Amino acid sequence: MALNCDRIEIDKGIALNLIPTDKFKSNILSFYFTLPLDRREVTSNALLPLVLRQGTRELTTSLKIQRRLEDLYGCNLSVSVDKKGETHAIRFTIEGPKNSYIGDSNYIKGMIGLLKSIIYDPYLEDGTFSQRYIEQEKEILKRLIEGKINDKRRYAIYRCIEEMCRDEKFGLYPLGYIEDLEDIEARTLYEHYMKLLYRAPLEIFYVGDYDDELKQFMIDDLRFAKDDLIQNERELISKGSQTKNMVYEDMDINQGKLVIGYRTGIPYEDDLYNGLMVASDILGGGPTSKLFRNVREAESLAYYIGTSIYRYKSIMMIDAGIDFDDFERVIEIIRCQIDAMKSGIFTNEDIDISKKSIKASMESIHDSAFLISEYFFSKVLTNDSRSLEESIRDVEKVTRDEIMEASNDMNVDTIYFLRHSGDGGMDNGNY
């Protein structure tokens, strides 16, 4: 079944996106506030939703909010911050069972009302946030930031991006920085909250079943006067620098983590971006990919290896888990496989397998109401008016020449290697 989105501008800077579906047993409502990534604000952005979920004017504690969620037939509440290119997205989501399962026509309005009160009517003390709640959530956020090192693979990718985009907004960590937490107080965070409410663009997504009456209710109920809107600018796209970065970091680990960052300079608006997706998948998209076959299977040099594309920044990452002594050999094989892609040394079967893999990944969006809202949110951010089916057809039309052309735009920018502590101190250099 085709996915359709009815996007309605309900007020200045606020759009309501309605995606009708009866596939799921629940309905989901998400608010996405967007702000430009800014080193001075990124930590406040991450802290704010954690504080807001602690209480409202009516429900003054998180326990009271949880009880209200239980009264609403077991609704779930979640908040997050995410980096979408050089835009910081602050998300508030509530999910609950479909009306048809509970027979309560007012239930969905109660669900909407609760999420609204969490965002727009928070618990305040003397006209500002509770310092006690702020200190509690600072500790939680601190642990989350510190915890990024626990998943060594993700940590290595983050560090490579940080080094690669050191002078760009994309290099910022979406959860912020521990050293910034101390200076955040109730007054300053509340001022930032008011900026978010009145100046940040807002995309609201509802995925589930609804009728005309509920649609009109949401249009009327979710209006909010905004002024002096902040504009989220298009990301800076670069083909690469003349100086290549080599970064070593030491840690007490048993397996090396190699990450190589490539600039492609192919923006998502470009037709060649589809060729880049197929090229990346042929190179490192799965067990039939060139890197998997040549690095892991043929040479037994990697515990895992794969590629990923960051569409908003037009960069590609290759990451692998390897033994420390195999670093140079793995880099050489990767270089040879990319050269092969640039020269067209891949089969028609490779192309077909990758196109089918990308299609399956795109179609998996149908499996989750949350993924559906994320998919349409990304379309808003990229001004992409194509349907999912049209996007799939564009991938299916990619030619061998386009794959080669996209491959020739893959330019190494940064090589990052997380290695054992005994292999030398942290060292940054050029190559």
Structure characterization notes:
By secondary structure, this protein is of the alpha+beta class. It folds into two domains: 6-221, Metalloenzyme, LuxS/M16 peptidase-like (Cytochrome Bc1 Complex, Chain A, domain 1), CATH 3.30.830; 245-430, Metalloenzyme, LuxS/M16 peptidase-like (Cytochrome Bc1 Complex, Chain A, domain 1, 2-Layer Sandwich). It contains 16 helices and twelve strands. The strands form two sheets. The protein has a six-stranded mixed sheet, sandwiched between helices. The longest helix is centred in the first third of the chain and has 16 residues, at 131-146. The mean pLDDT is 95.
What is the first-to-last residue Cα distance?
51 Å
Overall number of structural domains: 2
- Per DSSP, what share of the residues sits in E-state strands of 2 or more residues? 15-25%
Number of helices: 16
Output the CATH class name of the largest domain. Alpha Beta
**Major sheet attributes:** 6 strands, mixed
- General form: globular
